[in-house]
């Protein structure tokens, strides 16, 4: 596990924007953490990299927001309201894994059916008001060689 610290919202978005430069179709990111911990700001940073940030909204009520451009498709899921993994399967959620980049807020719910390779980022409140600690775990082998701290301040 790797840990990084983002001193504020902007640094969280910039970290995500920089990390997005290596993401490809089929990549899966699970975001975990309390409400207001920075998960949606992280997604905003990913979308900024692809020029889609003006489109962002939280998918809390729709389960998934889809973002498309000529480079990539991004699927932003918020699984907070789902009761169990079967609800995700019933909406055809697994079909998204290979269609683009999938980002799951509250993705712990579906960890049993995720692809072998994925990144999990757990957001915690830092000691200062807007500071966030991010614990980054990789599953499978695809992301083992990534030093995530290099994407904090490019």
Tell me what you see in this structure.
- The protein has helices at residues 9-20, 39-49, 85-90; strands at 2-6, 28-33, 64-68, 73-78, 101-105, 118-125, 132-139.
- The longest helix is centred in the N-terminal third of the chain and has 12 residues, at 9-20.
- It is globular and about 40 Å long.
- A hairpin with a 6-residue loop joins strand 6 (118-125) and strand 7.
- It has a single domain, classed as Rossmann fold (3-Layer(aba) Sandwich), CATH 3.40.50.300.
- Helices cover 19% and strands 28% of the residues.
- 34% of the residues are buried.
- The chain is an alpha/beta fold and 154 residues long.
- The chain has a 7-stranded mixed β-sheet with strand order 1-7-6-2-5-4-3.
- It has 3 helices and 7 strands, in the order E-H-E-H-E-E-H-E-E-E.
Structural class: alpha/beta
* CATH fold title: Rossmann fold
CATH class: Alpha Beta
Number of strands: 7
N-C termini distance:
21 Å
Based on CA atoms alone, the radius of gyration comes out at 14 Å
Uncertain residue segments: none
Number of helical segments with 4 or more residues: 3
Count of all domains = 1
Strand content: 25-35%
3D shape: globular
Name of the CATH superfamily: P-loop containing nucleotide triphosphate hydrolases
Helix content: 10-25%
Write down the overall mean pLDDT.
87
SSE inventory with pairings:
Blueprint: E1 2-6, H1 9-20, E2 28-33, H2 39-49, E3 64-68, E4 73-78, H3 85-90, E5 101-105, E6 118-125, E7 132-139
Parallel strand pairs: 2-5, 2-6, 4-5
Antiparallel strand pairs: 1-7, 3-4, 6-7
Helix pairs in contact: 1-2
């Amino acid at each position: 596990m790797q840990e990084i610290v983002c001193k504020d919202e902007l640094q969280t978005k910039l970290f995500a924007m920089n990390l997005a430069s290596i993401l490809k179709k089929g990549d899966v990111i699970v975001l975990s953490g309390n409400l207001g911990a920075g998960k949606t700001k992280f997604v905003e940073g990913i979308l900024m990299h692809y020029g889609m940030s003006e489109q962002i909204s939280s998918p809390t009520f729709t389960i998934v927001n889809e973002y498309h451009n000529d480079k990539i498709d991004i699927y932003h899921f918020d699984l907070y309201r789902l009761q169990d993994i079967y609800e995700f399967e019933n909406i055809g959620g697994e079909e998204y894994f290979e269609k683009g980049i999938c980002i799951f807020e509250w993705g712990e719910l579906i960890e049993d059916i995720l692809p072998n390779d994925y990144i999990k980022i757990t957001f915690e409140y830092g000691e200062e008001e807007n500071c966030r600690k991010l614990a980054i775990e990789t599953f499978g082998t695809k992301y083992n060689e990534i030093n995530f701290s290099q994407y904090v301040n490019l």
